[in-house]
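Worked example 3. Consider a protein that binds zinc ion.
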Amino acid sequence: MDTTVAREKLSKRRAEILETAVIKTDSVSNKDERIDEIVPAQVESKLTQNRVNELRAIDRALKRIDSGTYGTCRGCGENIEEARLNAKLEAERCVGCEEKRESPIMAPAKRPQYQAFSGRSMLH
Ligand SMILES: [Zn+2]
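Given these inputs, the predicted complex is written out as C-alpha coordinates:
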Protein backbone atom coordinates (compact mmCIF):
# COMPACT_ATOMS: atom_id res chain seq x y z
CA MET A 1 0.00 0.00 0.00
CA ASP A 2 1.31 3.38 -1.06
CA THR A 3 0.93 5.52 2.07
CA THR A 4 0.68 8.72 0.01
CA VAL A 5 -2.43 7.35 -1.69
CA ALA A 6 -3.75 5.98 1.59
CA ARG A 7 -3.26 9.32 3.32
CA GLU A 8 -5.08 11.12 0.53
CA LYS A 9 -8.03 8.74 0.64
CA LEU A 10 -8.22 8.78 4.44
CA SER A 11 -8.10 12.58 4.55
CA LYS A 12 -10.87 12.77 1.97
CA ARG A 13 -13.01 10.28 3.86
CA ARG A 14 -12.40 12.19 7.09
CA ALA A 15 -13.48 15.47 5.48
CA GLU A 16 -16.62 13.81 4.11
CA ILE A 17 -17.65 12.57 7.54
CA LEU A 18 -17.04 15.95 9.13
CA GLU A 19 -18.92 17.63 6.32
CA THR A 20 -22.04 15.53 6.80
CA ALA A 21 -21.99 16.40 10.50
CA VAL A 22 -21.83 20.10 9.77
CA ILE A 23 -24.44 20.15 7.00
CA LYS A 24 -26.83 18.00 8.98
CA THR A 25 -26.93 20.00 12.18
CA ASP A 26 -25.37 23.44 11.99
CA SER A 27 -27.58 26.51 11.89
CA VAL A 28 -27.48 29.07 9.10
CA SER A 29 -25.61 31.53 11.28
CA ASN A 30 -22.40 29.52 11.29
CA LYS A 31 -22.57 27.93 7.86
CA ASP A 32 -19.37 29.72 6.92
CA GLU A 33 -17.51 28.08 9.75
CA ARG A 34 -14.58 26.11 8.44
CA ILE A 35 -14.48 22.43 9.24
CA ASP A 36 -11.04 22.59 10.80
CA GLU A 37 -12.16 25.35 13.19
CA ILE A 38 -14.81 23.20 14.77
CA VAL A 39 -13.86 21.66 18.08
CA PRO A 40 -13.71 17.88 17.56
CA ALA A 41 -15.82 17.23 20.65
CA GLN A 42 -18.63 19.34 19.25
CA VAL A 43 -18.53 17.46 15.99
CA GLU A 44 -18.49 14.13 17.77
CA SER A 45 -21.66 14.94 19.68
CA LYS A 46 -23.44 15.43 16.37
CA LEU A 47 -22.25 12.24 14.78
CA THR A 48 -23.61 8.76 15.23
CA GLN A 49 -21.43 6.35 17.19
CA ASN A 50 -20.52 4.47 14.02
CA ARG A 51 -19.32 7.65 12.36
CA VAL A 52 -17.35 8.64 15.46
CA ASN A 53 -15.70 5.22 15.51
CA GLU A 54 -14.86 5.52 11.82
CA LEU A 55 -13.47 9.01 12.34
CA ARG A 56 -11.27 7.82 15.20
CA ALA A 57 -10.07 4.85 13.16
CA ILE A 58 -9.18 7.20 10.31
CA ASP A 59 -7.31 9.50 12.70
CA ARG A 60 -5.37 6.53 14.07
CA ALA A 61 -4.56 5.39 10.53
CA LEU A 62 -3.27 8.86 9.64
CA LYS A 63 -1.11 8.82 12.77
CA ARG A 64 0.25 5.42 11.79
CA ILE A 65 1.16 6.79 8.36
CA ASP A 66 3.05 9.60 10.13
CA SER A 67 4.88 7.20 12.43
CA GLY A 68 5.62 4.72 9.65
CA THR A 69 3.64 1.83 11.14
CA TYR A 70 0.74 2.00 8.70
CA GLY A 71 -0.11 -1.38 7.21
CA THR A 72 1.43 -3.30 10.10
CA CYS A 73 -0.91 -5.57 12.07
CA ARG A 74 -1.40 -4.51 15.70
CA GLY A 75 -1.98 -8.11 16.66
CA CYS A 76 0.91 -10.05 15.16
CA GLY A 77 3.14 -7.30 13.70
CA GLU A 78 3.00 -8.75 10.20
CA ASN A 79 2.05 -6.70 7.14
CA ILE A 80 -1.69 -6.37 6.65
CA GLU A 81 -2.85 -7.87 3.34
CA GLU A 82 -2.90 -5.34 0.48
CA ALA A 83 -6.43 -6.37 -0.53
CA ARG A 84 -7.64 -5.81 3.02
CA LEU A 85 -6.15 -2.33 3.17
CA ASN A 86 -7.69 -1.49 -0.19
CA ALA A 87 -11.09 -2.53 1.13
CA LYS A 88 -10.63 -0.92 4.53
CA LEU A 89 -7.96 1.76 4.59
CA GLU A 90 -8.14 2.18 8.37
CA ALA A 91 -7.65 -1.56 9.07
CA GLU A 92 -5.40 -2.10 12.09
CA ARG A 93 -5.14 -5.85 12.01
CA CYS A 94 -4.59 -8.57 9.42
CA VAL A 95 -7.50 -10.82 8.51
CA GLY A 96 -6.37 -13.57 10.88
CA CYS A 97 -6.05 -11.29 13.91
CA GLU A 98 -9.32 -9.51 13.15
CA GLU A 99 -11.18 -12.82 12.99
CA LYS A 100 -9.75 -13.86 16.34
CA ARG A 101 -10.77 -10.51 17.81
CA GLU A 102 -14.31 -10.66 16.46
CA SER A 103 -14.90 -14.24 17.59
CA PRO A 104 -13.71 -14.43 21.21
CA ILE A 105 -15.68 -17.65 21.65
CA MET A 106 -13.14 -19.31 19.34
CA ALA A 107 -10.42 -18.55 21.87
CA PRO A 108 -11.87 -19.93 25.12
CA ALA A 109 -8.55 -19.64 26.94
CA LYS A 110 -8.98 -15.87 27.01
CA ARG A 111 -12.66 -15.99 27.99
CA PRO A 112 -12.96 -18.34 30.98
CA GLN A 113 -16.48 -17.09 31.76
CA TYR A 114 -17.82 -19.01 28.76
CA GLN A 115 -16.61 -22.25 30.25
CA ALA A 116 -17.93 -21.41 33.70
CA PHE A 117 -21.47 -20.79 32.42
CA SER A 118 -21.63 -23.34 29.61
CA GLY A 119 -23.78 -25.68 31.72
CA ARG A 120 -22.96 -28.50 29.36
CA SER A 121 -22.96 -31.23 32.01
CA MET A 122 -26.38 -30.10 33.25
CA LEU A 123 -27.94 -30.61 29.80
CA HIS A 124 -26.76 -34.17 29.31
ZN1 LIG B 1 -2.13 -10.07 12.53
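Take a moment to read the result before moving on. The helical segments are 3-25, 40-46, 49-67, 82-87, 95-102, 112-116, 120-123. Residues 73, 75-76, 78, 93-94, 96-97 surround zinc ion (CB under 6 Å).
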